[in-house]
Amino acid sequence: MNSDKLDPNPATPFLEPPEGSDATHPEPGGLFAETPPDLEWLAQLKGRSILSAREFDSRSVCELSKLAAILEKIEIAPYHPLDGKIAVTAFFEASTRTRISFESAVLRLDGKVISIPDGTVTGQAKGESLQDIGEMFNAYCDLVIMRHTDTDSPERILENLRVPLINAGNGSGEHPTQALADWYALLKWRPELAAPRSGTAPKLHLGILGTPGSMRAVKSFLLMALLFKDHIARVTVISEMADPFGEDVTKDLAEAGIDYCVSNDVREFLPQLDVIYMNSIAFLGDSYRTLDSRYKLDSSSPLKPEAVILHPLARLDELDTSLDKTPHNLYFSQAHGAVFVRQALLMAVLDRLDRLPGV
Ligand code: CP
Fold it and tell me: Which domain CATH number covers 63?
């Protein structure tokens, strides 16, 4: 790609920070100012299904984030990256951000969307299997983005689905593109995380207020964090559960050799944390429950002055709105940036990276 053709600081950014907000909206240009995205590396994602954060390496996350940063800065629609492509957004479980940001991403890339906002409008309401729904989707679209309450739903639809599947949340399983949005926000906030750590650079203390074993967004965030372990001094999980990870994540932590601890006392650790990832809504069994809701943050919480908060949202009262207009708020940038990192992923999976201007 010829990066000379892209101005990292155009006069009119594609996405303006919310009017009147003091929220932290890091500048995307810092991510690609020195090195443009390696599109040949990203071409490996062509035709791939994305089911888990485990499928990424740190380089893929960084290259996708660099491409996302360009997409956030330019107007891509005139280049029609997804013309002729149809995505089905099949949401068998409620969503505000994921479905709409994916649909926005496809539409801004000049692709088309068939939107299923609710499983009751499909044959599922009559008892149709996901396997049969998958067989039908092969004829109707080029890519499926699915959310479902069942953890094994991706496996079931993939028995017959032959177009790429993006897992947009499967029960208490995973939410890999949420993790991409999380790390895109963090990489914009600290672009040096996208490069090998220099010997003297400070490492981050990451805090998780939540239960990775039961909260899919928290789990995918943590799995992706392991890819950046050289930049992380420690992970502290603050949870009301004695074993908040579950067996498979415990194995991932052990294999990564990362320094981590578990506590149920938020007061002990909060003043030490550089990044706080929080959530309280978990899909457990057959319904939404709140976990860890006793850990609440507001603008009077004893945070480090430069600490940032991430939250996949929706929030309940664990994340007080008094934080929205403070520099701790990275969660709006995280939600807004999801459109662009999803665009980057869609262009890679659907083999349209060559539509980026300057290529
Ligand atoms: N972050 C997230 O998954 O939000 P939605 O449930 O609104 O899609």
Answer: 3.40.50.1370
Encode pLDDT of 70-122 as tens digits: 999 999 999 999 999 999 999 999 999 999 999 999 999 999 999 999 999 99
Nearest ligand 1 atom, CA 335: 1
| Mean pLDDT computed over 159-169 | 98
Q: Tell how far the Cα of 130 is from the centroid of ligand 1, in angstroms.
A: 22
CB-CB contact of 227 with 176 (8 Å): no
Domain shared by 146 and 158, yes or no: yes
Residue whose CA lies nearest to ligand 1 atom number 6: 95
For residue 216, give Cα distances in angstroms to 10, 222, 239, 309, 314: 37, 10, 15, 18, 13
The domain of 111 spans 3-7+20-174+337-354
Helices 216-225 and 247-256 meet at what angle, rounded to 10?
10
212 and 190 belong to one structural domain? yes
Domain count, the chain: 2
Q: Within 10 A of 61 (CB to CB), how many other CB atoms are there?
A: 24
pLDDT of residue 6: 52
251-286 pLDDT tens trace: 999 999 999 999 998 888 999 999 999 998 877 777
Read off the pLDDT of residues 334-355 as tens digits, 9 standing for 90 and up.
999 999 999 999 999 999 999 9
> Do residues 187 and 324 share a domain?
yes
**Cβ < 6 Å from ligand 1: which residues?**
95-98, 169, 175, 178, 217, 312-314
One domain for residues 184 and 214? yes
Supply the residue whose CA is at minimum distance from atom 3 of ligand 1: 98
Instruction: Give the CA angle between residues 249, 253, 256 to the nearest 5°.
Output: 135
CA-based angle 53:59:63, to the nearest 5? 100
- Residue 277 CA neighbour count, 13 Å, CB half: 31
User: For position 10, what pLDDT does the model report?
Assistant: 46
**Spacing, Cα 354 to ligand 1 middle (Å):** 30
Q: What is the rounded distance in angstroms from the CA atom of residue 247 to the CA atom of residue 252? A: 9
